[in-house]
Design goal:
The protein has 5 helices and 10 strands. The chain is α+β, with helices and mostly antiparallel strands and 303 residues long. Strand 2 (67-80) and strand 3 (86-96) form a beta hairpin.
Length: 303
């Protein structure tokens, strides 16, 4: 039994920039379509989608006003060792937000499935293959300015994986009336004339829907800022207003960040959302106005 290649294969979906090939769109992705189960390594299953179109929609035509990353957790990763014995791990994956593309999550799942019956010499070889393939996908033929981070946890470390809720003042305590269920940034307001504050606010009531299938995506969000006090009731109503909105996780968080940044004008702002897993994957976008360390990829009870 031979080991799988240590370097990534070229993806049939990939359209290197500058060649005039139409960019991938969500409608072209595997979402909502029957897909064969491929259990032999195949990097071409990854389906990258450009970030630019959705950023233009929220008023970010060029360099975004934020730093950050998308923190993925893959709970269903398995492969064979060179004697044919199944191995498994949990993968923590960090995709830099400055990358030109996101990876559509169903294609990510199909790609991970392709490891299931593929032999690798070591777990490090699996990690290196993941890092190479994912980095190539999110930069789409352009120079890899920062590679995707991949960390594998073997079963001997599973017991050390903590469960912890997002820290901060709970907005859900507020007894508010909600009547808007598509994004309503006009609900955001600050207390003009009051002394600046630094605070962290959290809500478990974030819900949006998949951009393609319309299936629900459940999440919690943490907002840390410094500046004029943000009206908490209006902020919670705004977060609830995503309930019938169709957009990918990364795009929702960037929309929330941009709306807060432009309407409330904080001096500093960080938006971090953790979504419940689907298909063995969770996606947790983190965006911040200023350089700071990424949060540890710690799952919540609902994840």
């Amino acid at each position: 039994m031979s080991a799988a290649p240590g370097r990534s294969q070229a993806s049939s979906h990939r359209s290197p920039q500058g060649e005039g090939t139409p960019a991938n769109t969500p409608a072209q992705s595997p979402l909502g379509k029957p897909a064969p189960y491929v259990d032999q390594y195949d990097a071409s299953l990854l389906f990258p989608i450009p970030r630019a179109a959705k950023r233009l929609e929220i008023g970010v035509p060029g360099a975004p006003p934020f730093f950050g990353a998308d923190l993925w957790t893959a709970f269903e990763l398995s492969w064979l060792n060179l004697r044919g014995k199944p191995q498994l791990a949990i993968a923590h994956i960090t995709v830099p937000c400055e990358s030109t593309h996101i990876i559509e999550s169903k294609s990510f799942k199909l790609y991970l499935n392709s490891f299931n019956h593929t032999p690798f010499a070591t777990a490090d070889a699996v990690r290196d293959t993941l890092r190479a393939d994912l980095s190539a996908a999110v930069w789409q033929g352009g120079p890899v300015q920062s590679s995707v981070g991949v960390r594998l946890l073997g079963p001997e470390l599973f017991d050390r994986e903590p469960v912890h809720e997002l820290d901060g003042l709970n907005l859900d305590r507020l007894d508010i009336e909600c009547s808007r269920y598509t994004p309503a940034p006009e609900l955001l307001r600050t207390a003009v004339g009051e002394a600046p504050v630094s605070e962290v606010l959290v809500s478990r009531l974030l819900k949006s829907n998949c951009l393609v299938t319309g299936q629900p995506d459940w999440g919690s969000v943490q907002i840390a800022y410094s500046g004029a006090p943000i009206d908490q009731e209006g902020l919670l109503q705004y977060l609830v207003s995503f309930r019938n909105h169709n957009e990918f996780h990364e795009q929702c968080v960037e929309r929330i960040f941009t709306d807060l940044w432009t309407r409330c004008r904080p001096v500093k702002l960080t938006v971090y959302a953790r979504y419940t897993r689907r298909g063995g994957l969770d996606i947790n976008p983190f965006r911040t106005s200023h350089p700071r360390a990424l949060p540890p990829n710690v799952r919540m009870a609902r994840q």
